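Tutorial, part two.
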Amino acid sequence: MAKNLDVIILLDFYGDMLTNKQRDFLGYYYNEDLSLSEIAENEGITRQGVRDSIKRAESQLFEMESRLGLVKRFDEVRSGLTDILNYANEINEYNMRYGLSREINEKVVKIKVIAQSLCE
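Running the prediction step on this input gives:
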């Protein structure tokens, strides 16, 4: 099984919806970088049992994302906030070059503060 960044992200979003064992096995495998054999030894089960549990959990995570789309939506929001910050910077630069409106500058600062706080 190749280590997959997508599974790590999905685990962050949907991990609480898995069983404790599934969540633990995925955490050991992806976050702590333990091998299937190491997990099996630590848990007192077979390597195949660990593999099956991880595969089932991965499948469930991808199914949850397919149905709920939280990761996709999160990425879209983050991208939109980055665009907002970039546009706010462009407005601010234009204002400094051509208008120097205090009101525009204050609004741009507020937009940037809000967008940055939502990015965190």
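The two ends are 32 Å apart (CA to CA). In part three we will examine how such features are distributed along the chain.
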